[in-house]
Amino acid sequence: MLEQIKQLPGVRAAGFIHGLPFQGAPDGGFEIEGRPLPADPHQYPDAEYRMITPDYFKAFGVPVLRGRGFTDEDQRAAQQVAIVNQSFEKQFFPAGMPLGERIRFMGFDRKPQFMTIVGIVPDVRASGLKPPARSEVYANYFQHADAAMDVALVVRGPATLQPKIERIVTAVNRSTAVNFESMDGLISGTIARERFQTALLTLFAASALLVAVIGVYGLLSYAVTRRTSEMGVRMALGATSGSIARLVLGQGGLLVLAGVALGLVGSLIATRALQAMLYRVKTSDPSVLLAVVAGFAMAAFVACYLPAHRASRIDPSEALRAE
């Protein structure tokens, strides 16, 4: 099946994996050759265990940092091999290279054997975007195929090939159900809750901005109406339209500065509550705070400009007669 899929035009890589990222993977204890196991089985070394075919890392664009990846020759070799990630190396071999060391998982194969570590790959957030990467061990699927027959097919290529891939899969077994999904879709599904929370907060923030702008406009518009006669006197005594507009804008600017200062203090206080909803973004990120301040300032300026413009167009004679 894999060989036929690889021959399709546009396919860059194809592989199997037992325990697709974001959909869970077996987790089990193992032993390291030459190290005694604790008396309590609950204290055994623990890591996620995934079985893959040789081109799996190529399909995901994951490089082998040290050592080598799996090869077709491993399938026919008597010695079982494994690849570990950087978190595994840091946790269990902090003082030296794990290449060449042997480990044996309990509970997956009928007759567990020691596997030789032949490569090290980067950490992958296979459990989700928020949890930190865990120690992972990748085994050659074809050396353990009798342990788990359920696998996911990973193909790096255009989505237009889906009908052809489905025909290849169902040719092996017509009753096989085939469902295609992109990795972008899987990742999006893991953060659906965070997306909803963000959309809800965005709606609340937009409502708060609208209320603030309406409030600034209403207050300044009311102040201009109350001070119509005063501004008429000022203009009769020589004040220009520009000076009247600056006077109103200055009053609005003080309100805006006060609101910005209080908002920044409030945002810093609320950082702990917001931290759980963010990924790789600091709650006190200067660029984000600057963008929010600039956006609010622009909206507030429009709210201040309209009453200021109306005040600058006041006719002194009409303002004095109104008094």
Instruction: Give the ordered list of helices and strands.
Output: HEEEHEHEHEEEEHHHHHHHH
Helix content: 40-55%
Rg to the nearest angstrom?
Answer: 33 Å
Structural class of the secondary elements? alpha+beta
Provide the spatial order of strands within the biggest beta sheet: 2-3-8-5-7-6
Question: Which stretches of 5+ consecutive residues score pLDDT under 50?
Answer: none
The general outline is: elongated
Instruction: State the end-to-end CA separation.
Output: 91 Å
Q: What's the main sheet like?
A: 6 strands, mixed, barrel
Task: Give the number of domains.
Answer: 2
Approximate strand percentage? 5-15%
- What is the overall pLDDT average? 84
- Work out the number of β strands: 9
Structure described in brief:
The protein has 323 residues and is of the alpha+beta class. It has helices spanning 2-6, 56-60, 73-76, 86-92, 162-172, 183-190, 192-226, 228-236, 241-269, 271-275, 286-312, 316-322, and strands at residues 13-18, 27-32, 46-52, 66-67, 80-85, 102-105, 115-121, 136-140, 152-156. It is elongated.
